[in-house]
Amino acid sequence: MSTSPCPRPGEPEAGGPVAGPRPPVSLSPSRASDFMRCPLLYRFRVIDKLPEKPSEAATRGTLVHAVLERLFDAPAAERTPPRARELLPGQWARLLEERPELAELFADDPAGEKLARWLAEAEGLVERWFTLEDPTRLEPAERELFVETELESGLRLRGVIDRVDVAPTGEVRIVDYKTGKAPRPEYRDGALFQMTFYALVVWRLKNVIPRRLQLVYLGSGEVLTYDPVEADLRRVERRLLALWEAIAHATATGDWRPRPTKLCGWCDHQERCPEFGGTPPVYPLPVVPPPRSG
Ligand code: SF4
């Protein structure tokens, strides 16, 4: 069990940091969501580890997260919108240094107009944050916190929590920044899944049920909160165990079904997806033959 600071970008993969195909050993909220969305997408990402093109939206999200994290390095009174704006170019330069492939995003933009527009959008998201929270009155206990725990079943859960606030009374608040828009009410359960996942991990690690889960949507300027109780965390634990069983079964049998939805439009793997006439690469793990009948 561990908690330690972990820089963005990138939530840990369920298959762990080791390169090459191997069975998944742990689950993060993103990869759990991948499997629920489309098992074949999970396989491509976790087992085949197929590369994906960087996207402007995801990279903007990474940049905005980095700025909001670094802003808390400053003394409380200096955590202002101008200070946050000043951080943007430096954090973008740092990201580019860590991940040179991000330069591809603006390779067709010699005049720099697209990049300027993209940076202005990131700036707008950062500025909107100040209408939702007041960083001069916050003193986070943790930022970009890597958490990992093992349940009694042996399932390992891991992820990165954007911010953890601890009140003088000891109450814990888990905060996550989203650069998109808040979901419609009928989709809120999906949004809260990631947060209850983190609440379960924190509960297992520190024996404290977080008092509040808070999603800060910079895209639409909304804050979604939920105060979990033990029954919520036990429910998400059962759900994760069932999910892990399904992943283990697919891993052993090599049976990863595509599940087409309108989100396929954003999938990088259409050319190898049977739903779009493609063929997946040869399954790289040993397959357990089904039991003989009769
Ligand atoms: S294109 Fe759709 S169905 Fe195919 S792997 Fe991607 S998400 Fe799954």
TrEMBL record:
InterPro entries: PDDEXK-like_dom_sf, PDDEXK_AddAB-type, Restrct_endonuc-II-like. Residues 1-30 are annotated as: Disordered. GO terms for biological process: DNA repair. Keywords: ATP-binding, DNA damage, DNA repair, Helicase, Hydrolase, Nucleotide-binding. The keyword ATP-binding applies. GO terms for molecular function: helicase activity. This is Recombinase RecB.
